[in-house]
Design a protein that fits this description.
The structure is a homodimer of 304-residue chains. With 304 residues, chain A is an alpha/beta fold. The first copy, chain A, is built from 9 helices and 12 strands. In chain A, helix 5 packs across helix 6.
């Protein structure tokens, strides 16, 4: 796997007031993702030169709402068969290195999304959501799988702080397939002691208070209060929630799962929303696609 | 999935002295596994009657040390090919419902055990060790996978205490593919808040002290001391360690990963070693095999 070199952000100059850290250092996902994109651009240029015009290629499969009326009982089956057929043909296409299926699928004709996700060839599953990639990540085979983009981006942001993960107590809130569950795995196999919390956790403030590293993917606006956060912790906020705001033309604004204004009084490092995890997620999708293309080239060389 | 009905052990009569619980209730794996085996026997009898002599069948593939000398460089490849060929033929054999590959593999000719484990058809992988089954378990698709036998047996023993898992704080020590990692998943998806500890955890006694439910699969003799254990906790010990004992004819005896004599002064429930997790592991392998046979019969009926 490509290793991403940690580059401290160099934003520390304004983070201390007197003898006590009063406001957290902001971990900018915009800056960090720009660095990743620049590095990937260089790698793609190298591939192009070395392998005569070769380019990493990503296909995004989107199954839209259908305008035609749902006249026949077989429409549902036909829709599923069509989707699976598209996936198979992309799986076989040697010029494509990544395939992601946009979820949720067609909202009119319900299609089994597990079936569709697992139809993507594991070698092209740059979202890392198939059972095989999830199984490898969960059991520690990190060099042989694709890591889902959001947790991979979170780990990259944590690395940028210069805080080491090994031996730390990390707390993950949420256990979704896209964020919480793979985030647990990634922190665990980077040797943190990891606690996973969720909707059935009765003492969330106490659990959060023990976290040296806190990753929140709960999907509830500003649920983590600043007072819960351990002094000096690294706080990574994966939430994207819309709340009413009459001062905006749109009538709403985006907030995370962490109450930012109070949490940045206690955290050592914190990601903003927007401009934190979001841009890193996109950068990691590009990273996985380039990695897939590089693996493809390696396989072609060793076989040919 | 077959649900196992929790039966309280009814061993509580001698567990209290005065107003304070002084000695933990022993969770007998021998008793619990006997109940499982009896239930499975009945189910197999039913299958036999209903499907004319049908029997669940399990194949254990063991790759032994080779006596013949390792003369040729191709021996290793040949050995791997032979193993894979055996697996494929069992995968295709309609009369076999479970296949486990005994690990470690051949110690003379090193064979990639990941490759071999993943060659077993997921529908016959009653050990639950393939990537696909691990991926499903780790992401919460528990009804659609095989759960590894040791953690499945541990959960069954926890259920027998009558202590509910949901909302509890569970601590797992160890992150192996066979015990720790799947145990985390199983407790998490039964709605415990779960902390995974391991060799890099700096504050193990404090972590253990917060556990309502403690499962230890560390592989180190008596490493968990009684003083660490939370008063009234459920303690499940997966360790099997041999320590010197000159009072025995064999010169050794078996102990767990928990220091039993001190831990049973604080725990509410505790498994002994031997006679705790061990017999339940074997019973769960039988359980998975019967389940696999039942799924096979269901598929046959729906297809024909």
């Amino acid at each position: 796997m490509l290793s991403v070199v940690a580059r401290p952000l160099g934003l520390g100059a304004s983070c201390c007031r007197g003898s006590r850290r009063a406001i957290a250092t902001v971990i900018s996902g915009n800056k960090a993702s720009k660095l990743v994109r620049e590095r990937l651009k260089e790698e793609v240029e190298k591939m192009k030169v070395q392998f005569c015009g070769f380019r990493p290629s990503l296909v995004v499969l989107q199954v839209g709402d259908r305008d035609d009326s749902n006249l026949y009982i077989s429409t549902k089956l036909k829709a599923a068969a069509e989707v699976l057929h598209s996936i198979m043909s992309v799986n076989e296409n040697q010029t494509v290195h990544g395939l992601i299926v946009q979820l949720p699928l067609d909202t009119v004709n319900h299609i089994n999304s597990e079936l569709v996700t697992n139809a993507v060839s594991p070698e092209k599953d740059v979202d890392g959501l198939s059972c095989i990639n999830a199984g490898k990540l969960s059991r520690g085979d990190l060099n042989d799988c694709f890591i889902p983009c959001t947790p991979n981006g979170c780990l990259e942001l944590i690395r940028q702080t210069g805080v080491s993960v090994a031996g730390k107590h990390a707390v993950v809130i949420g256990r979704s397939k896209i964020v919480g569950a793979p985030m647990h795995d990634l922190l665990l196999w980077n040797h943190a002691t990891v606690t996973t919390c969720h909707s059935k956790t009765p003492d969330l403030p106490e659990q959060v208070g023990r976290a040296d590293i806190l990753v929140v993917g709960a999907g509830r606006a500003e649920m983590v209060r600043g007072g819960w956060v351990k002094e000096g912790a690294v706080v990574i906020d994966c939430g994207i929630n819309y709340v009413p705001d009459e001062t905006r033309a749109s009538g709403k604004r985006v907030v995370g799962d962490v109450h930012y204004a109070s949490a940045n009084q206690r955290a050592g490092f914190i990601t903003p929303v927007p401009g934190g995890v979001g841009p890193m997620t996109v950068a990691m999708l590009m990273e996985n696609t380039v990695q897939s293309a590089q693996r493809f080239l390696l396989r072609s060389q060793s076989h040919g």
